[in-house]
UniProtKB/TrEMBL annotation:
<keyword id="KW-0808">Transferase</keyword>
<dbReference type="Pfam" id="PF00535">
    <property type="entry name" value="Glycos_transf_2"/>
</dbReference>
<dbReference type="InterPro" id="IPR001173">
    <property type="entry name" value="Glyco_trans_2-like"/>
</dbReference>
<dbReference type="InterPro" id="IPR029044">
    <property type="entry name" value="Nucleotide-diphossugar_trans"/>
</dbReference>
<feature type="domain" description="Glycosyltransferase 2-like">
    <location>
        <begin position="4"/>
        <end position="162"/>
    </location>
</feature>
<protein>
    <submittedName>
        <fullName>Glycosyltransferase</fullName>
        <ecNumber>2.4.-.-</ecNumber>
    </submittedName>
</protein>
<dbReference type="GO" id="GO:0016758">
    <property type="term" value="F:hexosyltransferase activity"/>
</dbReference>
<keyword id="KW-0328">Glycosyltransferase</keyword>
């Protein structure tokens, strides 16, 4: 079961080395990393290409012009060759067992999407506080009455994604949550009670989230 790590980059080349190191440290070995740069204005392209070198597990692409997060992430999914896809921001990192713990759940045929806990980190990727989440109720007609709890590290079956309306490329924010809800309609969503994602808080980024003082609240910028 091949896993596609999808990385949408915009001006985050200076942080990519830690993301790269976390990918290389994965316990699960059958993966590829697909990187799509959205016309960065810094030296991201040169920096990232130098880091990945000639490793053919990394596939690097560039948008001809700045297209925005929705279009870029949609393109990444289409470029992926893996059975399972998961987004990782270039300024963040995943823990060594992040992919393997997800794959274990996808071996159960009724699971279409997994997500886990994540750790909020400072600019140097040092832990600040864990984000509190829980298992969503599957097959629940009242799902929208509950706070949305699906957050990093989110992974999903590409073949199931093809049977949805796919990512809404017109959305400027919350395009990922829209996708996750479409996947929710297709099968079971599994919460992995492990911290599998390190989320860097800083002023830049392709897209960031603002976490309030209460760890149960999260607001998309």
């Amino acid at each position: 079961m091949k896993f596609s790590i999808l990385i949408a980059n915009y001006n985050n080349g200076k942080y990519f080395k830690e993301c790269y190191d976390s990918i290389m440290a994965q316990e699960y070995r059958d993966w590829e990393a697909v990187i799509l740069d959205d016309a960065s204005t810094d030296d991201s392209v040169i920096v990232i290409k130098n880091i990945i070198g000639s490793d053919n597990r990394f596939r690097f692409f560039e948008n001809a012009g700045n297209s925005g997060v929705g279009i870029t992430k949609s393109k990444l999914i289409e470029l992926a060759d893996g059975d399972i896809c998961g987004f990782v921001d270039p300024d963040d990192a995943i823990t060594p067992t992040a992919i393997s713990s997800s794959i274990k759940n996808f071996r159960k045929q009724d699971v279409v999407l997994t997500y886990s806990r994540f750790m909020s980190c400072n600019d140097n990727l040092q832990p600040v506080s864990p984000f509190v989440t829980r298992q969503v109720r599957n097959n629940d007609h009242y799902f929208f009455n509950y706070p949305i709890q699906i957050a990093h590290f989110v992974c999903f079956r590409k073949k199931v994604y093809r049977n949805t309306e796919k990512m809404n490329t017109a959305m400027k924010i919350a395009e990922d949550q829209d996708l996750y809800l479409k996947m929710y309609e297709k099968g079971k969503v599994k919460f992995i009670n492990e911290i599998n994602y390190l989320y860097r808080l800083h002023s830049g980024g392709f897209r960031r989230m603002t976490i309030s003082r209460s760890p149960t609240n999260i607001l998309q910028k």
